[in-house]
Amino acid sequence: MHAQETTFSKLVHGETQFQVPLYQRTYTWQRDELRRLWDDVLELVDDKRAGNAPAAHFLGSVVLAPERVAAGGMQRWLVVDGQQRLTTLMLAFTALRDRHRARGREKKAARIHDLILVNGYQDGNDHYRLLPTQADREAFVACVEAYPTAGGPGNIGGAYRFFLAALTEGEESAGEQRVGEENADEETHQENAGEQWVGAVESVLRDFLSVVSITAAEGDNVYRIFESINNTGVGLSQSDLLRNYLFMCLPKRGEAVYRNLWLPMQELLGPARLELLVWLDLVVGGDNRAKQSEIYRDQKKRLEPLSSDEEALEAEVSRLHLRAGRLMRIAEPWRESDPGLRDVLERLARWGGQTHYPLALLLLDRLDEGGCDPREAATALSYAESYLVRRLIAGHSTTGNNRTFMELPKEVERELENERSLADAVRHALSTKTGTRAWPSDTVTRESIRSRPFYKSGRSNQRFEILRRFEESYGASEPVDYAKARLTVEHVLPQKPAQQWFDLLAEESGEGESPEELHTQLVHTLGNLTLSGDNARLSNHPFRRKQQILDSSALRMNQRIAGQERWGRTEILARAEELAQRSTELWPGPLDGVVHADAEWAGWGELRHALLSLPAGTWTTYGDLAALIGTHAVAVGNHLGTRPALHGAYRVLMADGKISPGFRWPEGREGGPDPREVLEFEGVPFDEWGRARRSHRLTAADLATLVGREDFEDESPAQDPGRSGADGESAATRFEKLLRDNQTPDTVAGVLASLRFWEERGGTLDYGRRSETSCFPTLSAGIRARSLWLLALYPVTGTAEVVFQHLKRRPPFDDELLRRELMARLNRVRGVDLAEAKLDLRPSFPLEVFAEHGEELRGVLDWFAHTAALAGSRRPADEEPGTPD
What we know:
Strand order of the largest sheet: 1-6-3-4-2-5
Helix content: 40-55%
C-alpha cells in the first residue's frame, strides 16, 4: 500500500471516479458532524481573510483500491474507507456551485461543476466523480444535476441543505459586516465583501483540507482491508499522549512529579476532565483556536522549547495541578468557599454546558493569584451569565457562544492593559459586537419578553433556570427547596385550551384577529409561563380552577397570578412588563456606546435559515414560520412580500395549502412558472381545489428540528408506567383514561390491542410527561446502545407520530434504507399517508387507523422489533453504534 498527503482538489483532479462499494453503509453524517467540519472551515477562512497563511486542516485518511481503467482512460477507484468525508466535501462543493449560480456567478459555478463534480466527457454513471452506494445515488445525482428534488429528505439531502444554508448566511453576514465597518450604503460593497468571503471558502475547501490518500495494490483483498480498518482497538487519549511525552522528558524528576502532582491531579479530575483541563490550559493561555481533538499536538508544540529543562517542565505540571483544583470549583461549585462567587458558579452549572469554563478559569486564576477579590470575580462572571440569558430570551442562536467565550480570555487581557478593573474588562469585551456576537440591550430584551415564544427557546433546564431566578427575586421569607419540589414549566393559558379559554380570548381579539391567532401569539411568551409541581392537576382547566391551585402554591409568582380576576391578553402582557423590568435588574446589559444597534431583527435571520432548510417536496405556512420565530403570520407575509428573492419563498403557502394571491417572483424572474408547478415538480401533490397535500406540510415543530432548535414541542419517553403522578394515577392509567374519553370505542380497542401485542412481543410501554399523557412503544436496548421507539401515540389529539427524527440517530435505523423500508411498510396500510419528504421528521397518521387496520399495523410493529433484534445480535459487543467512518 502507498500513502501520501494531498488536498481534496488534487485527489479528485482529472478524469477519475471514486465508487463506494455496496458492502459499505449508506451516508450517515448529520448536523453534528457537518457542523464540526464547517466550524473548522470557518476558522481557516478567518485566517485567510485576515491575511494569515492558514495551516492545512487534517481530515483523516481515504483508503482507495484501483479498479479497471474505463474506456477513454478514466481511472476508477473503490473507496475502501473515507466515503463520509468524500461525500460530504462533494456535497459542499455542490452547494457552493449553486450559491454561485444564485448570485449570477456562472463562470465560477461552471468551474466547480467541471473540475470537481463531473467528468464532462463521460456518460451515464461514469459522468460523476463520486458514485455513492445505490441507496444514496439518486439523492446525490439530484444534487449534482440540480434537479427539482435536490435537497430532499435523508442524509444526502440534509447535508446539501446544510451547506447551502451555511454559505448563504455566511455570505450575507460577511457583506453586512463589511458595510458596517466602512459605514457605506452601497450595495456593491456588500456584494463584493460577500463574494470575497465565498471565494475564501472555496479556496479552503480546495486547498487547505488535507487528507492522506492510501492506495492499495491491484489484486489486494479490498474487503479484508475494510474489515481491518473498521475493527481497530481504542487508541490513547490526547491527555495520555501528553503525559507520555512529558515524562519521557523528565528522566530524573519524573517519578516524584508523577507521584506528587500528576497522579493526584489525574485522580481528582478523571479522564474526561483531565482532557478538558489540558484544552482549557491552551485556551486561557490565548489559543482561541485550540481543538480538543488536537491538544496533544498543540501542547507538545508549546512545550518543546522546554523539553531539556526538567525544572521548567515540573513548573508546567505544577501549574496544571493548581488549575485542576480551580476546574473542580467550576464543575462542582460547592467546592468554592466564597458564597457570592459560589452562587454565580452554581447558576452557570445549572445552565448546563461548559461554555463559560474558559472565562471562569481565567477569573479563578486571577483570584487565587491575588489579582482580584471574590466580589469582583463574581461580578465579572455574572456578566457572562447575563450574556447567555439575554441571548436566549432574545432568540439568538447559541452556535457562536463557545467561540465567543474561547476568545474572551485574550480579549479580557487586552482590556486589562487599558487599566480597567477585571469586571469592567469582561463587560467591555462582551459589549463589543463582532460577527455573530451580540449582547441584547435592555430594549431588545424587554420587547423579546413581551412577544417572543420563550417556551421554544433554549433547553428546558435553561428556561427553568430563568423562571427560577424570577421567583427568587421576590425574596420570599421561606425559599423554595428546588431539589425536592419537582417543579416544571407550566402554561397558565393552556397549550391546548378548552372552548372557555377561546371565549375569553374572543373578548380581546382585534379586528381581523381570531381567538386562535391570539392564543398562538401569547401562549409561549414569558408572561404566560410559571413554575409548578401541579402540572397534571392544572392541565387545561378554566382559569377559576387554576386560580385555586396556584393560590395554594409556595411560589410568590403563582400567588400573584392567582390574584388576577381573569387571564387573557391584558394580564399576560402586564406580567410580561413586570418580568421585563425585573430582567434588567437581574441580568445587567452591555455598556452603552460599545455595542452596535442591531441592523435587523434576529427573527428574520431565523426565517431565512428555516427557508433554506426546507427539503424539496415539502411546504409550510406563514403561521408556522411565525410560530417558529416569534411573530405574527401577517408580519411574515409582509416580510416575504418585500423580500421575494428569499430562497424557498414559493414553499410558503396559506393555512389551507393554497398559493397566496399576493405571491410574486423576484425581480428578473417576473412571469416565472406557476409556483404550484414548481412544487409539483419537487413532489408536492395538489388536489382539485388547488390545495397542497397536508401530509407534506412542515409544522413549526418540524421547522425547529430542521434548523437544529432543541426542545421545540418535542417529547420523548420519560415516565415509568407504574409511577404515580400528583393525582395518584399511574401514567398508564392516565393514558388509557384520556384515550377512552377522546376516541371512539373501536379506536380504543384497536390501540389497546396493538399495545398488548407489543408487550407480548417483548417490548415495553413508556409515557410522556405532558398533560396529554402520550404512549411510546419502546424496545429496551443493550448497555451500549440506545432504546428504540417507533411511535408516539397521543390520545387527545388522536394522532400517532412516527418518530423518524429519533430513529435516524439509533442503530439499526440510522441506516436510511431501513427507514425508507419502514415508511413503505406503513404507507401500505390504508389510512396512513407519510410523505417521503418527511423521512427525517415526525409525520403522523390518525389513531383511528388502529380500529380498522390494527392487524396490518401490528405486522409493521413485528417487523420493526424483529429488525432491531436481528441487528443487535450482529453488532460486536465493543462496537460504538452509529459512529461514522
